[in-house]
Amino acid sequence: GQGCAMTPPFRKILVANRGEIALRVFRTCAEHGIRTVAVYSDADREALHAVQADEAVHIGPAPSADSYLRVDKILAAAKATGAEAIHPGYGFLSERAHFVEACQAAGLTFIGPDVRAMNVMGDKIGARKAMAAAGVPVVPGVNDLESIEQVEAAAREIGFPVMLKASAGGGGKGMRIVHEAGELRRAYEAASREAKAAFGDDRMLMERAVLAARHVEIQLMADRHGGCVYLNERDCSVQRRHQKVIEESPSPSPQMNPEVRAAMGEVAVRAARAVDYCGAGTVEFLFEEHPEGPRFYFLEMNTRLQVEHPVTEATCGRDLVWDQIRVAAGLPLGYTQAEVPLNGHAIECRLYAEDALRFLPSPGDIRCLRWPVGAHIRIDSAVASGSTVSRHYDPMIAKLTVWGPDRPTALRRMREALRETVCLGIETNLGFHLRVLGEPDFLRGDFSTRYIDQHPDLTAPHALTEADSQALAAAAAVHAATQLLHGQPSVGEAAGVSPWRRLANWRRA
């Protein structure tokens, strides 16, 4: 399954995306002898993904609505270059059923699930109903709310606090936590208005707000021959505004153990089988810790590759993109549940071009960029010194992932990697990550999705202090040292066996 096949399942793949995820897919394609096609907008003419693909096709102006969301232009690019399949990455068109249908009509293979699975799982109300029917535990709630009267009645039935969610929502849009009846009308009107603007759909659902829970998700991979496995869990509880910031595998919860992991994995597989799922998918759960044992509830299923997939690859030794490509071509998985290991611990920090105190994007030109180097470090990035972080797209500039034989070692390695990272010319959240990596509750693994809200010191004005000063000082020191070495990076930690040696040819910075 992992090895390079003599004849690749596709000769040429177009990636309908940009940035680090496009480069990530190109890397696996290159290892397996598959030619690649990039698409790019005006803002990305000199972007690394446009340069590193075998071919690149211009598809329009900078705004994504005029380029990366233009199905007609992407299909025309595939036709012009002779691509046989399209990998959607994440975001953009990756979970749009009409794109899947358009690919099929054009005779192209979409590297992802079919339309039915995407339609069911892409609608939060539809997904809740399908999962409840399949015996998957869901958070107590009420679906299909279309008026304030229905919302008020649902809140009386469920009891405060409640979570209002847009049925078609994602990325935290159209979502509000409401603590008391007096806040309900304003929250409903704001959430439904936001949902209508973002998704063209203002239907809402209401759930009991589980405030002291972790966000734990199960990675799945399924083929068209009845094979479906879970590749352990990721804990993505450190979030701001419902957006993940730090992810790790396995979960550091004291209540996570092989039995709980297997129970969650089996529920996730049941969820996938309920919609005849094929490809990479992630089932997200709310994970509540209780004295008598944990409770977990289905949140949603993401019908695509997740941003945080590197921590799974590090701990289970599989190349998830290669698995995606193979099953999309109709090949069987080639491995069983018993052959999925859990090896060590991996942590990913999302590095953003942003004002880390207010979590606001901070686009601009990168003057100097240097990544840490080491046997246990993986960098997923699509920027370099001289790159421009565009205001038109998500401000994530890289994912920094480290692996260790255990969590304390991984944490130590991550702190060192963050200190060795140099990014000058734009504001980043490097200092914020260093503060979190030194905070006692995080180090103990004692946190929930409310972690950042419960630790205001991490984002207080005076927090732009020691950690940030250390990060800047370290950056300056590393930059100066490497300049003295004529641009050669320090060797870094090279002992031990890197989990990425088993995967595609990852550059180590």
Task: Write the topology of this structure.
Blueprint lengths: L11 E4 L3 H13 L3 E7 L6 H5 L2 E6 L10 H11 L3 E3 L9 H9 L3 E2 L4 H8 L1 H10 L7 E5 L2 H11 L3 E5 L8 E4 L5 H16 L4 E5 L4 E10 L5 E13 L2 E7 L8 H16 L5 E10 L6 E8 L6 H8 L3 H9 L16 E8 L1 E2 L4 E2 L2 E2 L2 E3 L6 E5 L6 E2 L6 E9 L2 H14 L1 E3 L5 H8 L2 H5 L6 H4 L11 H19 L25
Parallel strand pairs: 1-2, 1-4, 2-3, 4-5
Antiparallel strand pairs: 6-9, 7-8, 7-9, 10-11, 10-13, 11-12, 12-15, 13-14, 15-22, 16-17, 18-21, 19-23, 20-22
Helix pairs in contact: 4-5, 5-6, 12-13, 13-16
Model description:
The protein is α+β, with helices and mostly antiparallel strands. Helix content is 33%, strand content 25%. The protein is built from 16 helices and 23 strands. The strands form six sheets. The protein has an eight-stranded antiparallel β-sheet with strand order 14-13-10-11-12-15-22-20. α2 links the parallel β2 (35-41) and β3 (55-60). It is globular, with a radius of gyration of 22 Å. The two termini are 27 Å apart. The model is unreliable at 488-497 and 504-509 (pLDDT under 50).
Largest sheet: 8 strands, antiparallel
Helix content: 25-40%
Task: Write out the strand line-up for the largest beta sheet, numbering strands in chain order.
Answer: 14-13-10-11-12-15-22-20
Let me know the average pLDDT. 90
| SS element count, helices | 16
Identify the overall geometry.
Answer: globular
Q: Could you tell me the radius of gyration in angstroms? A: 22 Å
* First-to-last CA distance: 27 Å
Q: Give the oligomeric state of the chains in this entry, treating copies of one chain as homo and distinct chains as hetero.
A: single chain
Structural class: alpha+beta
Low-confidence segments: 488-497, 504-509
